[in-house]
Specification:
With about 750 residues, the chain is mostly beta strands. The chain is built from three helices and 43 strands.
Length: about 750
C-alpha cells in the first residue's frame, strides 16, 4: 500500500477530509443497507475507458462520469467548468486559457509543439491543440474523466489521465433540441450580456441504412472587463461551432461514420491580465501599469484587449466491421487543421502615445498546426475466460509558430501598432514536427468468477524536431544557437490490474501502471537546447466501487513516482521548458451519487493530494520576486508543494425535484472548494483557497417539450485567478468570470 504523509497541511483542510471520510465510511459500512423504499433508482452508466463499452462498475480505473443531465443540472457550458464537479481535476496553469491538471499533473504549454499531459478525445479522436479546452458543451452526451496514466490504450500524452468526450450520434428516429440562453455578468463594473443558441437534429435519410445528425452552436458575449485606458468595455467573445455526422450501415455487421467539425472564434479575448508586482516593463510609464483590480485591464490596442482569432476544421472517418463469433475491427482516420492568432499589448500604456519616446510594444503571435491520425483497433469477443484488445496507431503533427514584436521605435501615429501588419520589428518563426507510431494490446483473463486479471502494454516510437527559427523575416534557416537535430524517444508502458467482484454491488481493484511522454521542444524562447527530455511516471492505485438501487460510489488511493517532470524552469533570466528531476504524489479521491428519495439527489466529490518536488537545483530569475524575494542565485525546490496541485478540493451538488400537477419543478445548487494553488515551482505566485457557488431553478410543464430555467454562476462573485502568465519581470494572472445570472429555454422535439 502506498505510504502517505502530510507536510504542513492546513488544520481545517485535514479536518474536512477526515470528517468526509468518516461520514462515507459509516454510510458504506453496510452498502446494501442503503436501499430505501421510495428512493429512485440510478441508471447504469456505460463507459469506453478500456476501448469497449462496459459498465463503469466493472472497470478497474478511477473514472468520473458527467452525463448530459449532469451537465445541465450544474449549468456547465464550458469544458473547463467540469473541474468544479470532478475530484482531482483543476483547469488552471500558465496558459491564458487554462488547461487540465489531473492529480497535479500538468506541463507548461508555452508554444507550438507543446502538448498537455492529459489526453483529450472527442468522439474517439485525439485533440492535440490546447484550444480544445475552450470547447462549448452544446451537443455532449457524456464526458468520462479517466484518472491515472492511460498510455496503454489511449497512447501519447496521457500521463495524468484522459478526458473522453462523446457527442450526440446519428439516429434513425427523428428528434432534435433547441436551447437558447441569455445571461448577464453583474459582478464587474461592466454589465455584460452573454447570448448563445444551440440546435441539434437527427433522423433517417434511408430507413435503417443511412442517418444524419447536425449540431450548431453560436455564442456572443459582451466583455465584462474594463479597459482603464479609456473606460471602454473589453473581453468579448464571438464564436460558433458546427458539427455534421453521417452514419451508413450497409449491413448488420458494418457501420461507417463520417464526421465534419468547423469552429471559429472572432475577436475572442482570452487574456485578461493584471501584474502582480511593480518590477515590470510597465514601470517605465507612470500611467502604464496594469490595474491590480480584478476584471480591469489597460491596453492601447485597438479592437480590444489582446484580441484573439481561432479557426479549426476537422474530418474523421470510422469504419467498423464485426466478424461473427470473433470480434470487431475498427479503422479510425482523422485530419485536423488549426489556426490561432492573437496580439498582446506588452507596454499596456494608458497614454495614447505610450509616453514617447518610449515605444508602443505589441506582440502578435500565430500558431498554425495540422495533424493526421490513423488507428486500427481489434476488439475481441469473449473466448471462454479470455478477451483482448489490440491495435496499431500512427500520428503526425506539424505545429508552427510565428511571433512579431513591433515597432522597435515609436513610429506609429496615435501610439498604436499591429504586430501582424508591421514591417518593422523583431520576427521569429519555427515549425515543430512530431511523428509517432505505436502498437498496443490488452488482455483480460478471468481467473475465477469473481477475479479478473488485466495485462497490457504499449510500445511507442516517436521523433520530434524543430526548424526554421528566423530573425527579421529570414525563414527556413535553423538558428545557430538551436540544436535542430531530431530527438527520438522509444518507450514501453505496461499496465497490470486485478479486479475482484465481491458481489454485483461491490468490487475492488488494484493496478500498477507506467506512463511516458516524449521530448517536447519549445519554439518560443530561442535558446540553445530549448527542449524538455522525456518524462516517466509509475503509479500504484487501489480502489473500490459500489452500486445499488439508489446509489453509486467510488473511492481510490494512489501513489505516483514522477521522473524528469516537464515544466517551466528559470535559467536566471527567463523561463525555458526543461525537466524537474523528480516528484512524488499520493492522494485519495471519493465520488458519491445518492438518491435520498424520488425527489432529492446528492452528488459529493472530494480529493486530497499530497505532492512534493524532489531534489532539484534551479536558477532564480533576476530582479525582485513577486511575493517571495530570494536573493540567492540558486535554490533547491525539494519538499515544496507542486504547482496546480491543491491539497484539498471538494464539491457538493443537491438537486430537488417536485412533481406538481402542472409540471416538474427542479432546484439545483452546487458548491466547489479548492485549497491554495501555486502557479510555478518557485512558489512566487499563489491563489488562496476559494469557494464557488452555482444554482439553477427549472420548470417543465406537463405534456410539453419545453423547459424554462433560471441560473446563477459564481453567485458569491468570488475573485480568483485560474491562470498566471509568468515572467521574471511581469507576472500576470487571468481571473475567472464574475457573477452571472441568466435564463434558458430548452425545446425538444
Amino acid at each position: 500500500m502506498p505510504k502517505f504523509h502530510v507536510r504542513g497541511a492546513k488544520n481545517h483542510s485535514t479536518g474536512y477530509l477526515v470528517c468526509l471520510i468518516s461520514i462515507l465510511a459509516g454510510l458504506f459500512s453496510g452498502p446494501m443497507a442503503w436501499s430505501q423504499a421510495g428512493a429512485s433508482s440510478i441508471e447504469e452508466v456505460l463507459v469506453t475507458a478500456q476501448r469497449r463499452s462496459e459498465s463503469v462498475q466493472d472497470v478497474p480505473i478511477a473514472i468520473t462520469v458527467q452525463t448530459a443531465e449532469d451537465l445541465r443540472k450544474n449549468n456547465i457550458i464550458d469544458i473547463r467548468d467540469i473541474g468544479n464537479v470532478v475530484p482531482g481535476l483543476l483547469y488552471a496553469g500558465q496558459s491564458s486559457i487554462g488547461v487540465p491538471a489531473i492529480r497535479g499533473i500538468q506541463s507548461w504549454l508555452g508554444s507550438g509543439g507543446t502538448e498537455q499531459p492529459t489526453a483529450m478525445y472527442v468522439d474517439g479522436v485525439y485533440q492535440p491543440n490546447m484550444w480544445v479546452n475552450l470547447m462549448d458543451l452544446a451537443d455532449i452526451e457524456q464526458i468520462d474523466v479517466l484518472k491515472g496514466p492511460q498510455g496503454t490504450l489511449f497512447g501519447r500524452n496521457s500521463m495524468g489521465g484522459a478526458i473522453v468526450i462523446t457527442t450526440a450520434k446519428p439516429e434513425y428516429e427523428t428528434r432534435g433540441k433547441v436551447s437558447v440562453k441569455y445571461g448577464v455578468y453583474t459582478g464587474s463594473d461592466q454589465d455584460a450580456g452573454d447570448k448563445s443558441i444551440a440546435a441539434f437534429a437527427t433522423g433517417p435519410l434511408i430507413e435503417d441504412v443511412l442517418a444524419y445528425s447536425l449540431s450548431i452552436y453560436t455564442r456572443d458575449m459582451d466583455g465584462y472587463l474594463t479597459n482603464d485606458r479609456d473606460g471602454s468595455r473589453s473581453g468579448k467573445h464571438e464564436k460558433y461551432t458546427a458539427r455534421a455526422k453521417l452514419l451508413w450501415e450497409p449491413s448488420n455487421n458494418t457501420s461507417i461514420l463520417l464526421s465534419l467539425v468547423k469552429s471559429e472564434a472572432d475577436d475572442f479575448e482570452t487574456l485578461a491580465t493584471q501584474t502582480l508586482n511593480d518590477n515590470s516593463i510597465n514601470a517605465y510609464y507612470d500611467d502604464g501599469r496594469w490595474s491590480s483590480e480584478p476584471w480591469h485591464v489597460s491596453s492601447n490596442l485597438t479592437g480590444g484587449t489582446n484580441p484573439h482569432f481561432h479557426e479549426s476544421e476537422s474530418f474523421s472517418l470510422k469504419i467498423s466491421h464485426y466478424f461473427d463469433g470473433f470480434g470487431t475491427l475498427t479503422s479510425s482516420t482523422s485530419f485536423s487543421e488549426y489556426e490561432d492568432e492573437f496580439t498582446i499589448d506588452l507596454d499596456t500604456g494608458t497614454s495614447p502615445t505610450c509616453n514617447a519616446p518610449f515605444p508602443c510594444i505589441d506582440f502578435w503571435q500565430g500558431y498554425p498546426s495540422e495533424d493526421i491520425q490513423q488507428e486500427f483497433l481489434f476488439t475481441s469477443d469473449q473466448f471462454g475466460k479470455v478477451s483482448f484488445i489490440a491495435g496499431v496507431y500512427y500520428y503526425e503533427n506539424d505545429a508552427g509558430y510565428i511571433g512579431n514584436v513591433a515597432p522597435v521605435l515609436n513610429l506609429n501615429s496615435g501610439g498604436h501598432s499591429d504586430g501582424k501588419e508591421s514591417k518593422i520589428g523583431f520576427i521569429s518563426g519555427s515549425t515543430t514536427y512530431i511523428e509517432s507510431q505505436a502498437i498496443f494490446a490488452s488482455i483480460d483473463y478471468q481467473i475465477s468468477d469473481q477475479l479478473t486479471l488485466s495485462l497490457g502494454g504499449r510500445y511507442n516510437d516517436e521523433e520530434i524536431y524543430a526548424e526554421g527559427l528566423a530573425y527579421l523575416g529570414l525563414k527556413g534557416v535553423c538558428s545557430p544557437n538551436i540544436d535542430c537535430s531530431p530527438v527520438k524517444h522509444t518507450s514501453f508502458d505496461p499496465r497490470l490490474a486485478l479486479n475482484y467482484e465481491y458481489s454485483d454491488a461491490l468490487s475492488f481493484y488494484i493496478s500498477y501502471t507506467e506512463g511516458s511522454k516524449g521530448a517536447v521542444m519549445s519554439t518560443f524562447t530561442l535558446t540553445p537546447n530549448d527542449f524538455a527530455g522525456p518524462e516517466d511516471l509509475s503509479s500504484i492505485e487501489v480502489g473500490m466501487k459500489a452500486t445499488g438501487d439508489n446509489y453509486r460510489m467510488s473511492a481510490a488511493i494512489f501513489s505516483y513516482d514522477y521522473e524528469d517532470f516537464q515544466d517551466q524552469v528559470w535559467n536566471g533570466t527567463y523561463a525555458i521548458l526543461s525537466n524537474v528531476k523528480e516528484a512524488e504524489m499520493q492522494g485519495i479521491e471519493l465520488d458519491l451519487l445518492y438518491n435520498f428519495s424520488e425527489n432529492l439527489q446528492i452528488r459529493a466529490v472530494a480529493s486530497y493530494l499530497d505532492s512534493e518536488y524532489g531534489d532539484h537545483l534551479t536558477a532564480v530569475p533576476n530582479g525582485v520576486m513577486s511575493q517571495q524575494p530570494m536573493p540567492l542565485a540558486v535554490v533547491n525546490v525539494k519538499g515544496d508543494q507542486m504547482r496546480i496541485a491543491p491539497e484539498l478540493s471538494y464539491g457538493l451538488t443537491l438537486t430537488h425535484t417536485s412533481f406538481l400537477p402542472t409540471g416538474e419543478l427542479e432546484v439545483s445548487a452546487s458548491m466547489s472548494y479548492s485549497d491554495d494553488v501555486w502557479f510555478e515551482y518557485l512558489q512566487r505566485v499563489k491563489q488562496d483557497a476559494w469557494t464557488v457557488v452555482n444554482a439553477s431553478v427549472s420548470y417543465a410543464p406537463s405534456n410539453s417539450d419545453i423547459r424554462l430555467s433560471l441560473f446563477g454562476r459564481n453567485l458569491g462573485n468570488k475573485k480568483y485567478f485560474t491562470s498566471a502568465l509568468l515572467d521574471p519581470t511581469n507576472d500576470s494572472p487571468v481571473y475567472s468570470p464574475p457573477r452571472q445570472v441568466g435564463i434558458a429555454l430548452d425545446y425538444a422535439f
